[in-house]
Amino acid sequence: xxxxxxxxxxxxxxxxxxxxxxxxxxxxxxxxxxxxxxxxxxxxxxxxxxxxxxxxxxxxxxxxxxxxxxxxxxxxxxxxxxxxxxxxxxxxxxxxxxxxxxxxxxxxxxxxxxxxxxxxxxxxxxxxxxxxxxxxxxxxxxxxxxxxxxxxxxxxxxxxxxxxxxxxxxxxxxxxxxxxxxxxxxxxxxxxxxxxxxxxxxxxxxxxxxxxxxxxxxxxxxxxxxxxxxxxxxxxxxxxxxxxxxxxxxxxxxxxxxxxxxxxxxxxxxxxxxxxxxxxxxxxxxxxxxxxxxxxxxxxxxxxxxxxxxxxxxxxxxxxxxxxxxxxxx
Length: 330
Hints:
By secondary structure, the chain is α/β, with parallel strands linked by helices. It has two domains: 2-127 and 300-328, Medium-chain alcohol dehydrogenases, catalytic domain (Quinone Oxidoreductase, Chain A, domain 1), CATH 3.90.180.10; 133-274, NAD(P)-binding Rossmann-like Domain (Rossmann fold, 3-Layer(aba) Sandwich), CATH 3.40.50.720. 25% of the residues lie in helices and 27% in strands. The protein has helices at 41-48, 128-140, 156-167, 179-187, 201-208, 226-230, 262-267, 280-291, 310-320, and strands at residues 2-11, 14-22, 29-39, 59-61, 65-72, 83-86, 96-98, 105-109, 114-115, 148-152, 171-176, 192-195, 215-218, 247-250, 271-274, 303-306, 325-328. The chain contains nine helices and 17 strands.
């Protein structure tokens, strides 16, 4: 058995670091020693508050981990020293998992591991999963260089959606009420930004987008906001030439029922798309975007804590509404 540390959510707003044991890897498994784990702050706030579906205390949270392979059950395509990304340990001992990434050592199926490109700093590989969730939504909309994309809600997922749409060559307009989030988007190279608390969003979006918005990505997580987001698309003319239908991508996590106004969607023939999490190819593509600097993880304000300081870190996350945290395990 191998001794490891793990971050445990014991109950509502209760966090501790705990030692436990995991077994040696079997054929098809890898033992990975963790370098960094990432905190998807919105998701883990929801888990810590007991509102996450399937999240039963006590549990090990987290779904972003970068580490080095220590050993593998034979045969193995990875060798000791390889830097890899995974979304959580298969084995979490006596604890439940809400994906199980925040562990010093992880036992992972080899098929669930992604190789981190040699040219990519391991700490910059951490957002491969959360970035891939956003990328999946961008791909669901079929975003390309001809599109004008509005991202409403520039929290963690929305921020990455804006960066990914820009990487695909689209004109991107970011909308939020939070000046700090707007500044972070500007740091990432998003040129067109609207402060929804101070400006007429529809007028500003039409001006920036030349009244030709083809894709709206709502990442607010606020069900009542979707009606407003749907109104930001371009109008569908009654005479040719007819442009392709605009797309509304529902990318956030919404706890309330979603109700949309029929008439605007009907008149503009808007396609409504839901985006569910991510797929392995999205994570691989995100790692490629990160390694070629087509997206910029350093643009986000990231708070980095030693893993031993996890209880304090989560308190600060909740109290200060931190947008991004990373734990360092070495």
